[in-house]
Specification:
This protein is mainly alpha-helical. It has one domain. The chain has a three-stranded antiparallel beta sheet. It is elongated and about 75 Å long. The C terminus is likely disordered.
């Protein structure tokens, strides 16, 4: 009886994890859709953002100057800047949806869709991934079309991840009653 109860608790914990993962992927997907809109409205290289100042003059904002963006009008963004802007702007840069969207974007650029996504890399690795994405964006031959294609690929990868989690969730749900000691 105890073994069956432990097994059922583990199964329910897996279902809880799957539900949290699905909610997170839904949030990431919505963020990526907004990032595409940001990049479509104005893509930049060599900085994270282009902002329109008080007198209508555009200026560029680099990572070290991110706080300057909070009260400015973003008129353009690089790949990373588009994700940050879509996630709520500079104050949201360290939030889980933004960080996970960056993880997924790096994965879409450098890994196979079949490989598992590394959602929580060490801070140094995550920062290296952001630098990789920034360098990729800033390559002299890079185009806005390529950046938008990568964001759309990342969106499809989020959908694929969602389907994998749903399949795991369904398999775990269907295990109800099989050897658990509960009717099912």
């Amino acid at each position: 009886m105890r073994r069956q109860q432990r097994s059922e608790r583990r199964r329910l914990a897996r279902l809880d994890r799957a539900a949290r993962e699905l909610a997170s992927l839904h949030s990431i997907r919505a963020l990526l859709e907004r990032a595409i809109t940001v990049a479509e409205s104005g893509w930049v290289q060599g900085c994270w953002f282009s902002v329109t100042g008080e007198q209508g003059r555009p200026s560029t904002v680099h990572a070290r100057d991110i706080p300057a963006v909070t009260d400015k009008n973003v008129s353009g963004a690089c790949l990373v800047g588009a994700i940050v802007a879509a996630g709520g702007g500079p104050t949201a840069v360290r939030t889980q949806p933004v960080q996970r969207a960056l993880d997924l974007t790096w994965h879409a650029l450098h890994q196979s869709e079949r490989q598992p996504v590394r959602w929580c890399p060490a801070p140094e690795i995550r920062m290296a991934h952001v630098r990789d994405l920034t360098r990729w964006n800033d390559h002299p031959q890079r185009s806005a079309h390529e950046v938008l294609t990568l964001l759309r690929t990342t969106l499809r990868l989020a959908d694929a991840q969602t389907e994998m989690v749903r399949a795991e969730q369904a398999a775990t749900s269907s295990a109800l009653g099989r050897g658990s000691g509960y009717p099912g």
